[in-house]
Amino acid sequence: MGEQVLRLRDLSEGEVLARIFPILSDGADQDRPTGGRQRPPMLVGPGDDAAVLAAGSGSVIVTTDSMVRGKDWRDDWSSAHDVGVKLVAQNVADIAAMGGVPTGLLVSLMADPELEIAWVEDFARGIADGAADAGCPVVGGDLSSAPEGVVVLSMTALGDLGGRAPVLRSGARVGDVVAVCGSLGWSGAGLATYAAGLAEPQLSRHSSAGDHGVSLARWYHRSPRPPWESGPVAAQAGATSMLDISDGLVRDGGRIAKASGVTLDLSGELLREHFLCPPLTDAVDEDEAWRQILSGGEEHSLLATFPEGCVPADERAPWQIIGRCAAPGPDGPTLVVDGIRPEVSGWDHFHP
Fold first, then answer.
1. What pTM was computed for the model?
2. Which of 26, 50, 219, 319 could form a disulfide with 179 if both were Cys (CB 3.0 to 4.6 A apart)?
3. In what order do the strands lie in the sheet containing 61-68?
4. 233-271 pLDDT, tens digit each
5. What tens digit of pLDDT does each residue of 132-148 get?
6. Under a CB-based contact definition with an 8 Å cutoff, are residues 284 and 192 in contact?
7. 332 in Cβ contact with 310 (< 8 Å)
8. Residues paired with residue 109 on neighbouring β-strands, in sequence order
9. Overall domain count for the chain
10. Which domain holds residue 119?
11. Which residues lie closer than 8 Å to 109 by C-beta, 6 or more apart?
12. What phi and psi values does residue 63 have, to the nearest 5 degrees?
């Protein structure tokens, strides 16, 4: 007889929470500094109707994101741990893009009662690891049943601005430089290799550069690690606008352009110099790599504009200048590469 597989339906809600709360608590480090300052304390943790956090600067950043099984991840590609890490990453990146640091996370799970408890526990470990890396606690959430086969995850992240004004999408000005912190195209390339049905590389010291490139791109697609520490650094340096690249450089850069009333005039030469290179070009050919640099989603790197001479110099997470803000032309505020609007656009949830 094999070991019995526990599923959500085999336990009460309280019993499920009793299994995952200790996992999430293990990931919280109350004394860990974040963004150069101490995180405001959690006054009341999980267990009551709501948690209570101190608002260090008197203002609170709030963002939320969700993931749906079969749409945002596939179980044959991603482990539950990967999914947990990714859910944290996409929320914390939004906090960073406002110039803030994360102070608390709320997690909701809506699942078919047939879902295995082992999956839920591994998901909780991914959340805990991501939260610990970001230096913020999980302060609560919700648990609910869902129809057959359905698993929906949601997270709300809270953040603090440290007394600074938020960095919005609407602050870019003509003459500002445009810069990226983090990678471009890795997540999209990883997804492309999965969609092409390529076998999982079996890495060894004899593996090719292509195998290593595919493995890295797939890892980043499953569980990205954005440079969220650089958000407050950019805000302190005087960033005039910023967002995280969740739907592709072209689409998200276009959002800054429209909100700010400018044209983001990007340099193809600079983009190729900084991003069209290994390991990306080891994972996919150069044409596909270039397409992913421009339109690949779920990267969560930071895109920002700065006054001339204000781009932060940080060797650990360097900002790469890729263009300038120009006055709008006949097409109005938009994004162009070498003066031409790219044919690719990026990710849209309802028109993939």
1. 0.90
2. 319
3. 61-68, 151-160, 101-111, 138-145
4. 999 999 999 999 999 999 999 999 999 999 999 999 999
5. 999 999 988 999 999 99
6. yes
7. no
8. 143, 153
9. 2
10. 9-160
11. 120, 123, 141, 142, 143, 144, 151, 152, 153
12. -145, 160
